[in-house]
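If your schedule permits, I should be very grateful for your opinion on a structural question. Please examine both parts with care and let me know of anything in them that strikes you as inconsistent. The record follows directly beneath this note:
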Amino acid sequence: MVTVMMTLLLGLAIYLGLSWRPRSLGAYYAAVAGVLAIWASSLAFWNTYTVMLPMVVGTLGSILLALSGIGAAWRAHRSDDLSRNLWLGGVAAALLPFALLFWSR
């Protein structure tokens, strides 16, 4: 049952990430900061099973924000807007916890 729920949540995060269109860079970076705070809160629970909840929510949020940021960068690129690098910087910040977990192993 847990696997089914996790699959549904992952599918929902991917769907929302592909369809959500952030309206401003400020709101996008605020959402990225919120997801990074959720990831950081998992450090408080590192030696318990409670660590799974912030890690799962942080993972889903990072996927959602990375996909929506890539879409916004693509739209900015097509319209010759110079903010595409700022969108890609937000994508890099949203994916930072994955890089840290990968390199810490």
